[in-house]
Specification:
Blueprint lengths: L1 E3 H8 L3 H9 L7 E2 L5 E4 H15 L4 H13 L4 H38 L8
Antiparallel strand pairs: 1-3, 2-3
Pfam families: MerR_1
Protein name: Mercuric resistance operon regulatory protein
GO molecular function: DNA binding; DNA-binding transcription factor activity; mercury ion binding
Length: about 120
């Protein structure tokens, strides 16, 4: 199946400017064009944008995604480089989890203390 940019953007859940931006940043390859000059995209392109969006949700920046896609596109798997890259992201995520747990404890502690002391939380 092939899509023009409007259909493609709708299918991917993004706007046309996002598609053009991804092309400028080389996250998407330059699309084929019709004789009239319209961009056309394939289902593989839909999957690629889906991957980009999902990995962004996981906290990867577009420059990091570009590096990941470079490895995928070129099939140049340098195991050590990939391991270090992913390991760094995992450590960053773990730190975020720890920070969120600390915030949660700050939120929960006054409630537990008030309950154990038979105090209203509003008096805290």
């Amino acid at each position: 199946m092939i899509y023009r940019i409007s259909e493609f953007a709708d299918k991917c859940g993004v706007n046309k400017e996002t598609i053009r931006y991804y092309e400028r940043k080389n996250l998407l390859q330059e699309p084929h064009r019709t004789e009239a000059g319209y961009r056309i995209y394939s289902y593989d392109d839909v999957k690629r944008v889906g991957f980009i969006k999902r990995i962004q949700e996981l906290g990867f920046s577009l420059s990091e995604i570009y590096k990941l896609l470079g490895v995928v596109d070129k099939d140049e798997v340098r195991c050590q480089d990939m391991f270090e890259f992913i390991s760094k992201k995992q450590k960053e995520a773990q730190k975020q989890i720890e920070d969120l747990k600390r915030i949660e404890m700050i939120y929960i502690f006054p409630k537990k203390f008030a309950f154990s002391q038979n105090m209203a939380i509003n008096n805290c």
